[in-house]
Write a structure and sequence with these properties.
heterodimer, A: about 110 residues, alpha+beta, two-stranded parallel sheet, 4 helices, B: about 220 residues, mainly alpha, elongated
Chain lengths: ~110, ~220
């Protein structure tokens, strides 16, 4: 079942997508969709405020580039600080997933009262 | 371009007036290209033109929300970066203090001028605006927020500074007078938005200048 991407998770997803390769806004949205096998959905307009904040924080860098076909597009790349931040986010997420799994992933033998 | 997409972009633009023209143009251009790509993709999946536009608009979310979140991201950023916020606050606080000392001296020179109160008030407003502008030019990242904090800090600390440095006779008369507190509240209420406006202008100037330098470079 598709789930909405929360505002808090969007920056980490953008960083993860850009860690693979540079991309423009539309491409980032499509890659999130594809890599999550359509399980994650978002209002695509929310991408741009998130991209601005990541740019201001120096985690990504955007530059207008002329495309071989079609008009110039703003292409984003992850920076060295962005990669560090992504690593931190991945560790945080793994820790969180382990904790949740330790509780929710247990097989229950309990009988209903 | 489809009229509904144009209308959408106009609504986004209405929220971006505080941005320099070039930056605003770039934002809208980026959104426009994204939406056109969405419409194209929807059409390729078999939708009619109208359906493709409706789907793209739904996929993008409310124009008002997008515009508001974008301007918020530009002006306030994401997580607070403490160094630049503290820098902007400190610069505005002490910059304001130094400027006040200089202009107080100038005001004393005009103490006997016929339009003295007008000169003093004009001078104070100009100083507030200028220091705000300088804060924006020096520390654009958190200039507006830093200026707000600085003015609130000044409103809180001014009575303590008076208590420390004024002679005892004047101090008690000043701090017990209702008009002093009314003046403090009124001047904070007037100067804070004015300084924040100055900071916004300074930050805009800085951002335009940085872009010009990049283009020239």
């Amino acid at each position: 079942m598709p789930r909405d991407v929360t505002k808090g998770d969007l920056p980490a997803l953008i960083l993860a997508v850009l860690a693979d390769s540079a991309c423009h806004g539309y491409g980032i949205a499509r890659r999130i969709e594809q890599q999550s096998a359509q399980a994650l959905q978002m209002k695509e307009g929310s991408l741009y405020p998130a991209l601005r904040i990541l740019e201001q924080d120096g985690l990504i860098a955007g530059e207008w580039e002329v495309q071989p076909s079609g008009p110039a597009r703003k292409v984003y790349r992850i920076t060295a600080n962005g990669l560090l931040q992504l690593k931190e986010k991945q560790q945080e997420w793994e820790q969180y997933a382990r904790t949740m799994s330790a509780i929710l992933g247990r097989k229950t033998d309990a009988q209903p009262a | 371009m489809h009229s509904r997409l144009e209308q959408y972009l106009q609504t986004v633009e209405q929220n971006l007036h505080a941005l320099p023209a070039e930056e605003r143009h770039n934002e809208l251009n980026e959104i426009r290209l994204h939406m056109e790509a969405l419409v194209e993709a929807n059409r390729e999946l078999g939708s009619t033109e109208e359906e493709a536009v409706s789907q793209a608009l739904a996929q993008f979310g409310r124009a008002q929300t997008v515009g508001k979140e974008l301007i918020h991201a530009h002006q306030w950023g994401g997580q607070p970066q403490w160094r630049s916020l503290v820098g902007a606050t400190t610069f505005n606080y002490f910059g304001g203090f130094v400027a006040t000392q200089i202009t107080s001296g100038l005001c004393l020179l005009t103490a006997h001028a016929p339009l003295m109160p007008v000169i003093w008030i004009g001078d104070s407003l100009l100083t507030t605006l200028s220091v705000g502008w300088l804060t924006g030019a020096v520390a654009p990242r958190h200039a507006v927020k830093g200026t707000l904090y600085s003015h609130l800090l000044r409103a809180v600390t001014t009575p303590f500074i008076f208590a420390l440095f004024l002679p005892a006779t004047i101090r008690s008369a000043t701090l017990s007078s209702m008009s002093y507190w009314a003046m403090l509240v009124a001047s904070t209420a007037i100067s804070t938005p004015l300084a924040m406006f100055g900071a916004k202008l300074g930050a805009q100037w800085r951002s335009t200048r940085v872009k010009k330098m990049r283009i020239v470079g």
